[in-house]
Amino acid sequence: KVRSLEQQYQDITAAFSVSAKHVAFSASVFTGGAQGYIGPFNTETVLVFRHVATNTGNAYNPNTGIFSAPVRGVYHFEFYLHGHGHASHPAAASLIKNGQLIFTAFEGQPSYSVNSSNGVILLLESGDVVFVRLWQNARIYDTVNHHTTFSGHLLFPM
Hints:
Protein name: Cerebellin 10
Largest sheet: 6 strands, antiparallel
Radius of gyration: 19 Å
Strand content: over 45%
Keywords: Secreted, Signal
Number of helices: 1
Subcellular location: Secreted
Shape: elongated
């Protein structure tokens, strides 16, 4: 079947609009008001980063803490955790893609401030989800200085 010129033009336009998609977000846990600890919990818990510095493309949901890839492409993510040292509660969380653990950030010591972080580049399909999950029995801390953050952006569409 031969496609009309209009149909071919629509296909080309759609291809370029996907390649020009802009996706980037950066958010922290602290939103104002009371600062303090998140955790420990008796189960792994999705961290919700409610203070959004930027959310170009609206792929990050600050109500759920979940990033959903709008287009197939290569994405970069990083997350930073801040905590206060505790003998039993490390600052520990994992980056999760579609329910699968990808990378972990862990720091545990009995006192003083602790900071852990990690980052990754992932090939995502449209609709894949990525989020940060706090470990069971772990805790983090955040303040107006926004130490605990989650960021990501589309490097290029595929």
